[in-house]
Specification:
The complex is a heterodimer. By secondary structure, chain A is α+β, with helices and mostly antiparallel strands. Chain A contains 6 helices and 5 strands, in the order αβααββαααββ. Chain A has a domain of about 120 residues: 2-Layer Sandwich (Heat Shock Protein 90), CATH 3.30.565. In chain A, strands 1-2-3-5-4 form a 5-stranded antiparallel sheet, covered by helices on one side. Chain A is globular and about 45 Å long. Chain A starts with a helix and ends with a strand. The model of chain A has no long low-confidence stretch (mean pLDDT about 90). Chain B is of the alpha/beta class. Chain B is built from 3 helices and 5 strands; from the N terminus they run ββαβαβαβ. A 5-stranded mixed sheet of chain B has the order 1-2-3-4-5, with helices on one face. In chain B, strand 4, helix 3 and strand 5 form a beta-alpha-beta unit. The longest helix of chain B is centred in the middle third of the chain and has 19 residues. Chain B is globular and about 35 Å long. Classes of the chains: A alpha+beta, B alpha/beta.
């Protein structure tokens, strides 16, 4: 059975949801989400530390989507927006959860899986070393992506990066990433 | 002088006094574009810098894209310091912001320039 975006999104949108978005990931969207979340955190009087962590995860995961999502995808339903991505922020058992989703070319899966598994295997000090190494040795891509986003999220939240790849068609999978704050 | 925006910090550079200030939030998607002028100015300033250059960095938050560009800025400063023109970097962080303090310590361990960690009381 092939992966169905609508069902996937509907499932995610159940429960205590702060934001549920599917569509183009643009610079404006990122601004709007950050503003809306800051406002919401004000309203519920969220604790300072939680705020900063949630903000950090949002900035980095949204900018990851922004940098890594391809403009259009071969063989993917035309009704999906260019630079299509999914963002859901939910509350569960008093914790915030940030979920992002995007299409990934099959050729990139191995690299991504290895990278995340590696990050998940490191302790706090090792993550710091990895961060510093990449910071000092890797060049920024033309669009400003640096290879640091996932490491930074893992380091700051202390959480494991939980992920799944759903087979969409021959060329693409849908990559789902979940981060607990 | 670059004015601050919701996504980018204000940048002040006084070459006559040798004082540089970066203040605010740094979360542009493409930080290279934003930081390029500062990196270029430093390159130029580095040709005949003052005997002492003071750099004040007071960032509330910066994304990973910015962290690389900030490193590039610090590397230019390191070159100036190595050529025997003193540089001091004042790294400001808010009370209880361990992440920002740690970020300053990360840079301090990579860059051969004296850093001062300065806590700001809320």
């Amino acid at each position: 059975m092939s992966f169905n975006i609508r069902n996937y999104f509907d499932d995610l949108s159940k429960g205590d949801v702060v934001i549920a978005y599917k569509g183009s990931i643009t610079s404006d969207l990122i601004n709007d989400v950050l503003e809306a979340v800051e406002k919401k955190l004000d309203e519920v009087n969220a604790e300072g530390k939680t705020r900063k962590k949630l903000y950090n995860v949002l900035v980095e995961s949204l900018q990851n989507l922004y940098h890594h999502i391809e403009e259009t995808h071969e063989g993917i339903e035309e009704e999906l927006d260019p630079k299509f991505g999914v963002l859901v922020i939910a509350r569960e058992d008093g914790e915030y959860k940030v979920i992002t989703g995007n299409f990934v070319n099959s050729s990139k899966i191995k690299y991504l899986k290895e990278k995340i598994d590696k990050i998940n295997s490191l302790n706090k000090d090792e993550l710091k070393d990895m961060y510093k190494f990449i910071l000092n040795h890797q060049k920024l891509s033309a669009k400003g992506g640096g290879g640091l986003g996932l490491v930074d999220i893992a380091r700051k939240t202390g959480s494991k990066l939980v992920y799944s790849f759903y087979n969409y068609n021959d060329n693409y999978y849908f990559f789902n990433l979940e981060i607990k704050i | 002088m670059i004015e601050g925006t919701p996504k980018t910090p204000s940048v002040k550079f006084d070459p006559e006094k040798g004082v540089i200030e970066i203040k605010g939030r740094s979360i542009p998607e493409n930080s290279i574009e934003f930081y390029k002028p500062l990196v270029d100015w430093l390159e130029h300033y580095g040709k005949s810098p003052l005997n002492k250059t003071l750099v004040n960095v007071q960032l509330e938050y910066f994304n990973t894209s910015s962290s690389k560009c900030i490193l590039d800025v610090f590397k230019k400063l390191e070159a100036i310091h190595k050529a025997n023109h003193d540089v001091v970097i004042n790294w400001f962080y808010e009370e209880d912001d361990e992440d920002m303090l740690e970020a300053g310590e990360d840079y301090e361990s990579i860059i051969r320039v004296p850093f001062k960690m300065i806590e700001i009381d809320d």
